[in-house]
Write a structure and sequence with these properties.
This protein is an alpha+beta fold. The protein has a domain of about 150 residues: Ubiquitin Conjugating Enzyme (Roll). Helix content is about 50%, strand content about 10%. It has seven helices and four strands. A four-stranded antiparallel sheet has the order 1-2-3-4. Helix 3 crosses helix 4. About 20% of the residues are buried.
């Protein structure tokens, strides 16, 4: 991995350490977090975070990004949410405000620790240090309104696509095939229309069936007359 990194802003030893961490995150991801590895650039690391259950972000998937500076790990990375989210500690532009990425930063903090802290922020926001003042004020004064607003953002911007059951998929593909075949019959120049239109304008099962029923319908009265005649002859005997 380290040999594939092309960014020259980071020292080789930092690139090797990042490559090791990213490999570990890829093989053993933290719960609810999936890191998107870009072998060509370790200075911008993306991750998809599942909204924790029991929060207004449940059932959502939020993409975030960590941007590493030239003197990383001596200085903390900057964190951003790419997915829009209504949260006290995340600005409308996506900037993340958390002490781990500011005054509490320690060069020994690894990427795993940073990602876990960000996900915990979705569980327990800190409205006292809000970047989104509206969300912070709403959280302190009326949690129900805050949760409703946050759920709305989640449903619009971060909702997971629902997987359709197999039976539904099969029925949908069948209906599409039916629609396509019927559309083909209506296309100009179609063989079925060119061959049938001049001779039989109303070709189809509904028109062929009466022709078969015609002889049967005329034969029934004749059979009845024969039966009546036989009955009369029997009476005479």
């Amino acid at each position: 991995l380290a040999s594939m990194a092309t960014n020259e802003n980071l020292p080789p030893n930092v690139i090797r350490q990042l490559a090791k961490e990213l490999k570990n995150l890829d093989q053993s991801p933290p719960e609810g977090i999936r890191v998107i590895v870009n072998d060509d650039d370790f200075t911008s690391i993306c991750a998809d975070i599942d909204g924790p259950g029991g929060t207004p972000y449940e059932n959502g998937v939020f993409r975030m990004k960590l941007v590493l500076s030239r003197d990383f790990p001596q200085s903390p990375p900057k964190g951003f949410f790419v997915t829009k989210i209504f949260h006290p500690n995340i600005s409308s532009s996506g900037e993340i405000c958390v002490n781990t990425l500011k005054k509490d930063w320690n060069p020994t903090h690894g990427l795993r620790h940073v990602l876990l802290v960000v996900r915990c922020l979705l569980i327990e926001p800190f409205p006292e240090s809000a970047l989104n003042e509206q969300a912070g004020k709403m959280l302190l004064e009326n949690y129900a309104d805050y949760a409703r607003h946050a759920r709305l953002y989640t449903s619009i911007h971060a909702l997971k696509p629902k997987t359709k059951p197999k039976s539904g998929t099969i029925s949908e593909s069948t209906s599409v095939n039916v629609d396509q075949s019927s559309t083909t019959n209506l296309l100009p120049g179609s063989n079925s229309l060119d061959q049938n239109a001049p001779t039989e304008p109303t070709v189809g099962p509904s028109t062929t069936l009466p022709k078969k029923e015609g002889p049967v319908a005329t034969k029934a009265p004749a059979d009845k007359k024969k039966m009546d005649a036989r009955k009369k002859s029997l009476k005479r005997l």
